[in-house]
Write a structure and sequence with these properties.
Length: 140
């Protein structure tokens, strides 16, 4: 395994582990969610079944994605085409999230942190994964 492959493994593991922390938000008491919402400067948490559903299901999806990144890190050569796909779709997702954050009126720190961070991580993932030659005879 070369240096780029090792760096990709670290990036996937760290990113995946951070995203797996979203598991906590799935079971987070709503009162704690509301307190965090206020602490972030977002005002009062809108108490409704839809908001509760969306926050928990988004957290679940982030956790699933995090688990996938950890799994892919186990064999970056075998899964190189999948990693490239996730990096490219991550670039698109980062742009979409910048638009969502702006139109939703998210605070500046959020707009600068979410979409741009996804873009940077996805670009680095793509750069690291593009040169990897998948193992012969294997398919992802």
């Amino acid at each position: 395994m070369n240096a780029k492959e090792r760096a990709l493994v670290v990036l996937l593991r760290v990113s995946g582990a951070v995203m797996l922390l979203a598991l906590l938000a799935i079971v987070l008491p709503t009162d704690w969610m509301a307190a965090t919402h206020r602490w972030l400067g977002l005002g009062e948490f809108p108490a409704s079944p839809l908001v509760d559903y969306l926050t928990r299901s988004a957290s679940a999806l982030y956790a699933v994605y995090g688990g996938l990144l950890v799994l892919l890190a186990r064999d970056v050569r075998r899964f190189a085409p999948v990693i490239v796909y996730l990096a490219v779709t991550g670039l698109v997702f980062g742009v979409v999230m910048i638009g969502v954050d702006v139109t939703a009126g998210m605070p500046r720190y959020w707009r600068l942190g979410e979409g741009p961070m996804v873009l940077v991580l996805s670009a680095v993932m793509l750069w690291l994964a593009r040169g990897i030659q998948p193992l012969r005879g294997s398919s992802a």
